[in-house]
Design goal:
alpha/beta, five-stranded mixed beta sheet, six-stranded mixed beta sheet
């Protein structure tokens, strides 16, 4: 059993810190001191502040803290990679403070990067929530899809699904039609079916055209289904199980899209996965 | 031979007026009194102003002037449709002023609308620039693709290709990388090949990932190729000729994408097509 430590999931806009003892969270805090908000020189004081509030404990920092906008840039570990490669590449700021490296992936046609998600994705396996081999999805602004083989991430793809949705809702021709909240309803499922046709630019204009021609449609849900459907259809092999690391409402939407496209969704708690992943990393350094 | 008349191509943001005599433009003006700028009640004065400047002639108005944001809403003519159906549905405001209707299209999965483009698309055929049967593309913010059969538009698809490019350049994660002008270069062609894979949300994130991993890339041209390549690949049947109604630089970009994807591009003058189309409509009313 490892001693208590502090784990920080340091995102771009938000930051969560956990005190973890014997695999269980005994204290937590969340604030908006994300990496985009913290000047580089302020990290020592930020970290000291967390320790002042949560305890003088060893710390593991994951996420954007290791990026160009973070404390210091920690090189990516190339996938395929699992816990061993990540632990071997921990970047120690001092003897009780280490930054977890992100992962990169390259093949003939693709390049991809992640920072922070690797802890959650591998943690879902460490927690026993997903098998050693499977397809994991972590929906969000940038949806991460990871292929797990033998408990290691052998490849991954990021899709700007959530960001495209936000851009369309805020700035596009469709912004006046996209005035609600996306629901996993019939309009969403119609969008999923259309998204699987992979003709996004045309499918989007058709939303406008239908409204001009007088159709009443939940355009927000349809557009959400269009984007999520395109994302899911590009990733799953039919009848495959997809392990979805998300909370409602995103977990509901991705789950509905996976089912509609012939896969089997399985929702996994994202916080528990992070805690399990970072605890495994801590145990391997002890 | 028809007498002289005034043709107005009344877009959302711009307006062009032509005095046409025996099929030739003898005077023209262009301003920013697009339909979005002109309050409904101002149309009589706007039209009187055009006549005061260009002559007391019969007028044919095409484009957004017939839309919900225009002078008055003229019902769409359902495709398949050619000049005959359009002429039959001209909306006469008075005995010397008529608005040209737009076209709509519906099938089991698609809905689409156009206002103004139909004059140019059918005009390309009237001018002898395209055959009676062919695939026409009119690139822009919303790229119109029309299937011509027997000199009539039998179906069409609008893709928000240009609008997506603008949204990404102005507001997305990629905005700092997209700082140049799109060129039909190697990066563009790499984008076209990637776009034909129809996985836009993931292909877009990869632009970011490659930059993070240190690759130097003309991201503007790649992103342009990605969007245009996806658009062209969804529309053409291999080795088909595509008649592109556009001016540089868009004509160059679409031409390069069509060639890269196995089609044969053929560039057609868009202004000459409009003039030929509106002249044909005028002749059929005389």
């Amino acid at each position: 059993m490892s001693d208590a430590f502090i784990a920080v999931d340091w995102g771009t806009t938000n930051r969560r810190a956990f005190v973890i003892r014997e695999g269980a969270v005994v204290a937590t805090e969340r604030d908006d001191h994300g990496a985009a908000m913290v000047p580089r020189d302020d990290y020592p004081a930020e970290v000291a502040g967390i320790r002042a509030r949560l305890g003088e404990l060893p710390m593991l920092l994951a996420g954007m803290v290791g990026s160009t906008i973070g404390w210091r840039q920690v090189p990516y570990v190339a996938a395929p990679a699992g816990f061993e490669e990540i632990v071997a590449a921990l970047d120690y700021v001092d003897d009780r403070t280490a930054i977890v490296p992100g992962l990169c992936y390259r093949d003939a046609v693709r390049a991809d990067v992640m920072r922070g998600e690797e802890v959650q994705l591998l943690g879902a396996f460490a927690a026993g929530s997903v098998p050693a081999d499977g397809l994991l999805a972590q929906p969000g602004t940038h949806c991460k899809w990871a292929r797990l083989e033998g408990g290691r991430i052998t490849g991954f793809t990021t899709a700007m699904t959530g960001e495209l949705f936000s851009l369309l809702r805020a700035h596009s021709l469709l912004r006046h039609q996209m005035d609600g909240t996306a629901q996993a309803n019939d309009a969403f499922l119609a969008g999923v079916a259309e998204g699987a046709r992979h003709d996004l630019a045309a499918s989007l204009f058709a939303i406008r055209a239908r409204a001009v021609l007088g159709a009443k449609e939940d355009a927000t849900s349809f557009a959400s289904g269009l984007l999520i459907g395109g994302d899911v259809a590009a990733r799953i092999v039919s009848s495959e199980t997809v392990y979805i690391l998300a909370d409602p409402p995103l977990s509901d939407l991705y789950s509905a899209a996976v089912t509609a496209l012939g896969g089997t969704p399985h929702i996994v708690g994202s916080r528990a996965s992070f805690v399990a992943g970072i605890t495994r990393i801590r145990e391997m350094t002890a």
